[in-house]
Amino acid sequence: MPISLKKGTHGKFSLQRPLHFLILLPIICYAALAFIALVFSDRMIFPYRGSTYAKSLPGLLFLRATDGAMIATRYWEVPGARKIVVFFHGNYEDLGQLDAIARNITKLGYSMLAMDYRGYGLSEGIPTENHCYADATRVISHAVRLGFDESRIILWGRSLGSGVATQLALEIEACALVLESPFTSAFRTLTGIALLPFDKFNNLAKMDKINSPLFIIHGENDAIIPAWHSAKLLDRHRHTKILHLVKNAGHNDLWQQNMQPALLELTQLLGNFD
After folding, report:
1. Residue 159 annotated as catalytic
2. Pairing of strands 176-180, 214-219
């Protein structure tokens, strides 16, 4: 029986259908990936639900966002501090879990101010990339009201927070941008490369436009966001920059390692810009 390569008919074997399927399969997969990214990415980026703290938390203050939502912030004050760290935490954290980090930062002589993203802790609303940026700008305004001009503000972003801190570094002339376990972009934590024409928290695309000194801390054994993300960010930045790799550290145990060498290197960097 002859094999038809053009048209499949009853009783004849056709190669055209499997060839069509092989051509269409990558297109279907790509379309499905784009659909998932558009519809479900916020749920994946912001998985946190529930608060670890109550309204009695020391240093807690609510700021009203431009659309009326109440955003929870927390302030660790160091009397007489000349600089302030504005800290943006990871996607499984909230203000009630930052005391250990705050102790290390305040020991350096810096005050610290942090916020919870919408839907995190006691902050109201639904978290999105744009909400994070807008609410973070309100937090910066509050830091200025506390007596710190922009040149005395250290932007510090951990993991997801690296996306918020990086965006702010485009908007203000900060003392420094500190990124802890950052990513090149949100989608590339899963794909490794840029597959879609859109992305979220695209740090890599912004890095060469940032003038503030850049200090990156990353665990050598980070399997969630591998250290190559930091290497790419460092390479793209055009001004003063340092990458400090922490030995034996992963993504979630960074502060359980010896962070003193990294903090010492950071204070030396910041001292050069007093």
Report:
1. yes
2. parallel
Please give the structure tokens belonging to residue 157.
């972003």
User: Per DSSP, which regions of 162-246 are E strands?
Assistant: 176-180, 214-219, 241-246
The packing angle between helices 129-145 and 161-171, to 10°, is 60
Tell me which amino acid residue 248 is. Answer: N
Q: Cα-Cα-Cα-Cα dihedral of 45, 48, 53, 57, to 10°?
A: 10
Side by side, the strands of the sheet bearing 153-158 are 60-64, 70-76, 111-115, 84-88, 153-158, 176-180, 214-219, 241-246
Q: Specify whether 151 is catalytic.
A: no
Which one of 111, 123, 159, 162 is the catalytic residue? 159
Say whether 251 is catalytic: yes
Q: Supply the pTM of this predicted model.
A: 0.85
What CATH homologous superfamily does 57-271 map to? Alpha/Beta hydrolase fold, catalytic domain (3.40.50.1820)
Q: Which two tokens stand for residue 218?
A: 């990353």
First to last CA, the chain: 86
Place of tokens 């912004």: 206
List the catalytic residue out of 123, 131, 222, 229.
222
Residue pLDDT, tens place only, 217-265? 999 999 999 999 999 999 999 999 999 999 999 999 999 999 999 999 9
Q: In terms of pLDDT, which residue wins out, 161 or 28?
A: 161
Express each pLDDT in 167-208 by its tens digit: 999 999 999 999 999 999 988 786 666 655 668 899 999 999
Is there a contact between 244 and 174 (Cβ–Cβ < 8 Å)? Answer: no
